[in-house]
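Predict both folds.
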Amino acid sequence: MCIQNQEIMEIIYNDVFKEHETGMHPENKKRLEAFEGLPITEIPSDDSVLSLIHHSNYINKVKDYASRGMPLDGDTHTSLASYDVAVQAANATLLASENQGFALVRPPGHHAYADRASGFCLFNNVAIAAQHQVDQGKKVLIFDFDGHLGDGTSHIFYNSDKVMYWSIHQFPAFPGHGSVDEIGKGAGEGFTVNVPLPPRSGDDIYMDALNYTLPIAKAFNPDIVAVSAGFDAHQYDLLLDLRFTVEAFYSTGKILTDNFENVFATLEGGYNVEELPKCAINFLQGINKKKKRYKEPHTESDFKVWNEYELRIDQLLTTMKKYWSI
């Protein structure tokens, strides 16, 4: 059935997100400078929302380290403005959850844990917005198509039956896990759905994985869908070895809007500054049922990659049938 009442997804953005200075780091302000003519949204600066997910001592640590421009770890840098920028990134994502928007923000968030930074991420934007919706009595599906597993998000909701975490990502790759047997724990058993794709997977495998696991997400019957929209799986992104095209991201948006009523998104990865805007805009065009703006020849995976993928997807579906009628 085609869902008809998805509102137009609009970009939520402010120039403040360029003020998180990281120098020559792959996650830098050029990622957002690559977009042109973005409308400016007034973003709240309420740091109380951080406590929906993060421990107070960790929040204070980020504030302290940023005040001195110190890195939180080898991958995650800060500058004097980073705490305030990260607070607004979290608030922009929460705003997106209320307005079915796309929070075009940085720093990204899905690697951040409740008590520590990781993988360029200070605070977990999507987790904060998801918990906000849970606190309003909503069941939340988090769909993470960033090419890296959102290990922070997965960990935060690993014991929850109010949030389903569904991730399609490269494995092996950072952060080093995300296999099909990581399915949640306790009340959350069966509510974590990891779809690990072999390196060199193209559009064909990605779309197969999306369509085969979509019934699990639909069986959860979420009230709202939160999308961790990362575009580092694009074939010209240097941080991974996946081969998606702008066509795959357009199809992703279209599939989501065709199957779910209430969808919002927040930016995660995507480090090729020439390709990132094309990927993000095509995703939005798909969500909004408009014609794709960019085109690229579909990529196909070779036999060995398909063989490994099929072994993994069979194992995943066999496991998930214990929890969901699919």
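Second protein follows, with its predicted structure tokens after the sequence.
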Amino acid sequence: MKVTMLGCGYVGLVSGTCFAEFGASVTCFDIDKTRVDKLLQGKLPIYEPGLDTLLEKNVKQGRLSFTDNLNDCIPDSDLVFVAVGTPSRRGDGHADLSYVYRAVQDIAPFLKGYTVIVDKSTVPVGTARNVKRIIAETNPEADFDVASNPEFLREGAAIADFMRPDRVVIGVENDRADSVLRELYRSINLIEAPIFSTDLESAELIKYASNAFLATKISFINEMSVLCEEVGADVHAVAKGMGLDDRIGRKFLHPGPGYGGSCFPKDTQALVRIAQENGASSRIVEAVIEVNEAQKARMIKKIRSAIGGNESGKTIAVLGLTFKPETDDMRDAPSLAILPKLIENGCQINAHDPQGVDEAKKILPPEVRYYDDIYTALENVDAVVLMTEWNMYRNLDMSLIRDKLKQPVFIDLRNVYEPDSMKTLGFDYHCIGR
């Protein structure tokens, strides 16, 4: 089975590499020749644990290749996956579909033989119908079907998620397209992962609804953390007690500085816009977005309070910049909302992150100082802020850290450490909801 993946970004590279591992012949296409050239040299544009090894293996075995020429891949493809970006449109929160529509318009003239065009990008309801219209108008002779196959990949665990998914969602209009996609995913039948077929519109909405629900859990427990601080409760105990109920579940009930990344912020905004365009209410999702923004603002106040009420002239060491561990993704990371505000008020930031520095340098204020060594970043600072819970931050030498600080102030925005232990070590320890 021959597959073309349009877009060599996060979704395209992970999906294309994993399909090759399933045994398909995969070509990843990108209009960025520089990116393609680097991939041909084995250089990845993203960090995802294990992806480099899997990609190298499938390239060597001849199942995975890269090109910037549509004629090299589209005419012979059984399936073409559209995995280009759908960022929030500037100003209104709608998903920007210009990359999707440009991609399908570009490929339409090259289609030969029956081909299934698959939306892999996260797209609003109705996009597949528009893709079908664009292709039919551009190439009336094309023999094709359009399908929706949303991705549910967690950055940092994407390969495991793809190989052992909770479910595969397929949106189709007929059995012919359904059978082609099921054949591609045949390998996961061995682990009995459910393949769920539905209509196009439902498949498109499942992705948005899933992400909005997970974002709701995060905002809910963050809102509960505020109440816990006020009444003297422990948010961890509250989350554990809730999570033991199978109807609720323990996942995504972890307090923190707010959700970020490439999915939750833009997908919740887009779902609100979809509801508005169709005259439906989305009050819960709107509240989720508001709570998330408020949580980031509350973290600024928490840091300010911990260092004496005024950050001007202070130096803070920040551990972790990416929105979560095991990724270099800085998109909508809480650090982007928190650190610039502190810098504006005269605070110096010393930053460390094991993977995110290169991306951070592009978007954080130039005043930020970056360090390769954790403990050098902590030298003679007024406070430490643990922003992202990378594993390397979970077992720090606290005695050494305490001795390096001007004042032993430790602000743990991920609740990695235990309050009693930190206080015993002599720290002025601040966390969330405890």
